[in-house]
Amino acid sequence: MSLRLASVAAAALLGTGLRASAAIIGTCTIMVQQPGTIIANPTISTLASTQAGGSAASVSVTTNSLLCTILNLLDCYGLSAPAPASFLSAPSGGDANVSFSSTYTVDGVTRAGGIVTRLPNGTKTVTVDLAATKSTGIFPAGAYQAEVTVRCE
What we know:
Blueprint: E1 2-8, E2 10-15, E3 22-34, E4 39-40, E5 46-48, E6 57-65, H1 66-71, E7 77-80, E8 98-106, E9 109-112, E10 117-119, E11 122-134, E12 145-152
Parallel strand pairs: 1-12
Antiparallel strand pairs: 2-3, 3-6, 4-5, 5-11, 6-11, 7-10, 7-12, 8-9, 8-11
């Protein structure tokens, strides 16, 4: 079972008013450092990276905005890591009655995946955890793969 991370990099653009002309004034780059691993709990009703033997995924987020530097702003970009709606792959019946939740940790603070954290310019290491829980029954044996998209906007 594995947890993959997809990254979304955002760039802020400032239009000059001229046709087909823009200046890039900021970037946010996300690099996957390590994929995570989800493991079943003893009752096989939850697959999570926080279970014994599981591991969180890790990404490096680097933000750089000229506008933020000029204005000395401390909250230029919004970071989030919302949970997926389904597995990328699962055995037959593995996706039935499943809910997903994600959390991410930046600067020692853990937040729900859908909550936005404001980031200043610089580089941050972010860890991401994922849990999939069956409301009824257990997860069938087989390989599972899910993907959390880390967003920087």
